[in-house]
Amino acid sequence: MLKVENITKYYGSLKAVDNFSFTVKEGEIFGLLGANGAGKTTTFRIIMGLLEAQSGKVSLFGKAIDYGVTDTIGFMTEERSLLTKLTVKEQMLFYGKLKGMDKETILMKLDYWLDRLNISEYKNRIIKELSKGNQQKIQLITALINDPKLLILDEPFAGLDPLNVELFKEIIMEFKNKGSIIIFSTHRMDHVEYFCEKLVIMVAGQAVIDGYLTDIKKNYRRKNIIVKGDINKETLLKINGVLDVTSYVDEVEIKIKDDSVIDEVFKYISKCKNITKFSVEEPSLNEIFIAKVGESYEE
Predict the structure, then answer these.
(1) pTM score above 0.90
(2) What architecture is domain 223-282?
(3) Which part of the chain has CATH 3.30.70?
C-alpha cells in the first residue's frame, strides 16, 4: 500500500501542498487530478523522494521512500524526460542501471517492450529522430522497464493516436491485474472514468473531492436527462429545479438539481410528440470537475 499522510510543502511563502493525504492499495488505479498549479507535480516528486515535505510522511509497503525503495517505482512524467541525443538502446541501459538492473535483463526487457509497442526497428535510432507518439512509447518503456510495484503515470496518452491509446490502456490494466499500485493523472476525464475507482481532485494543494467515483457522482446530486423528440426549451426552463437545457443534433440534455425534479420533467415530456428517448443519467466526471474546481477558485 502507498500511504501519503498529511504532507505539506512550501516554496518560500507559497504553500504548494496543504496537509494532503490519500492511500492506494495494490491492484488499484488511483486518479490524482487538478487544474494546472494545483500541486500534483509537487506531490509526485514528494512520493518519488525527489522533494522533502515540511511535514507529513509517505510510505510504500510500510517503508519510508528512500533509495532502497525507489528501484520499485516507475514514473512517466508529463514533460518528456528523455535524453534525445541517445539511441533508444542507450537510453534504456542508462535508465535500467539507475534502477539497479543488470545489462542482460535490461536488454531482454527492452526487446519485449519494443516488440509489444510495435517499434522494434527503432532500437538503435536516436530518440530525437522519432515522432512524438513513438517518443511517448519510449517514455512508457522507461517507466515499465523495472516491472514497478508503484507506477505513476502523468498524462500518459499525450501525442498518441486512438490505436496506441488502446494499446497503452491494455498495458496499464495488465499492471493493475498483476497487483501494481498505479497513480494516474490526466486532464482527460473520460480516461479517468475508464480506469479509476478512487480519485482525489486537488485545488491549491488541498483535496476538494476525495473518494470512490460512484460515491462522488451520487453525492453530487445533480442529474442529466436526455430526451429525443419534439419538446419546447422555454417550457422546460420554467420547471422549478431545471438548471439548463441544451439542444444537440438529435437530442436534448436537461440538467436538473436533483432526483426530485425528474417527475415534473417527465410529466411535461409525456405530453410531447414523437418522444423516442427519456433517459436519466449521472453527470460526467468532467462536469463535476468543472463545477467543483470552479467553485473552489471563486471562494
Answers:
(1) no
(2) 2-Layer Sandwich (3.30)
(3) 223-282
